[in-house]
Write a structure and sequence with these properties.
This is DUF1264-domain-containing protein. The protein is of the alpha+beta class and 230 residues long. The protein is built from ten helices and eight strands. It is 33% helix and 24% strand. 28% of the residues are buried.
């Protein structure tokens, strides 16, 4: 059994080494930002998910991110997020805006953090993340999770889910989730909240975002079979 295990590890290492030698990873290699936050299901605000975003800035007004459930080597790929500036968000059609959420509260509350494990925890991290937080404070995101890991931990079953964020205190995530994230990353969400009061400017989110706050209604993607177009 031990011999079989060693052989399996050897073949795995050989496979990866051979792949890296002949394949291109250009889009992946362009990822330059790791953000950690929490998402809530658009249709069920009792369900919260820790989300690690790995992002590439296509322009100063548009970012694209792949999302994992952690920053471990075997992390599960659970979704994507597109991030746009206020200028682009305001230009979207009314029907499109309902899919988007603001980042104002995420940044101000300290829930959105930069690179929880790749930087030295504490003051160094707080200083390093200020430019990113200043930029993200006035942005808007469209997030779709393709894997509902809180219901189906083993496989990405079911339709995708639209995800939202928070716009005020008392909306989540549960304190124990934040405490677990802080313990794992060596950071302090509450301290970040106080620190950011000193450098974030006053900003009011665009009302057309976070539509659920006005309507009390969320969005679900429902499977519908239709005739094939030929």
């Amino acid at each position: 059994m031990e011999s079989e295990t060693k052989q399996s590890v050897y073949h795995s290492a050989t496979y990866h080494a051979a792949g890296e030698a002949i394949m291109s990873f250009k889009p992946i290699n362009e990822i330059h930002q790791h953000l950690c936050a929490f998402h809530v299901y658009s249709s069920d605000h009792s369900r919260h998910v820790e989300a690690h975003h790995y992002c590439k800035h296509l322009s100063k007004d548009f970012h694209q991110c792949v999302i994992y459930d952690s920053d471990d080597p075997n992390a599960r790929l659970i979704g994507i997020e597109y991030i746009v500036s206020e200028k682009i968000f305001k230009s979207l059609p009314p029907e499109e805006k309902k899919f988007w959420h603001s980042h104002k509260y995420e940044v101000e509350s300290g829930l959105l953090q930069l690179a929880p494990k790749s930087l030295v925890p504490g003051a160094a991290t707080d200083i390093a993340e200020q430019p990113a937080m200043l930029e993200l404070h006035q942005t808007y995101g469209k997030t779709i999770h393709t894997w509902a890991i809180d219901v189906y931990p083993d496989l990405p079953l079911g339709p995708p889910n639209l995800m939202m964020s928070y716009i005020g205190d008392g909306q989540g995530p549960p304190a124990e989730m934040v405490q677990a994230r802080d313990a794992a990353s060596g950071q302090d969400t509450a301290a970040k909240r106080e620190l950011r009061k000193g450098y974030l400017s006053s900003y009011e989110r665009v009302e057309a975002a976070d539509e659920w706050a006005k309507t009390g209604r969320g969005v679900e993607f429902v499977v519908k079979e239709v005739p094939l177009k030929k």
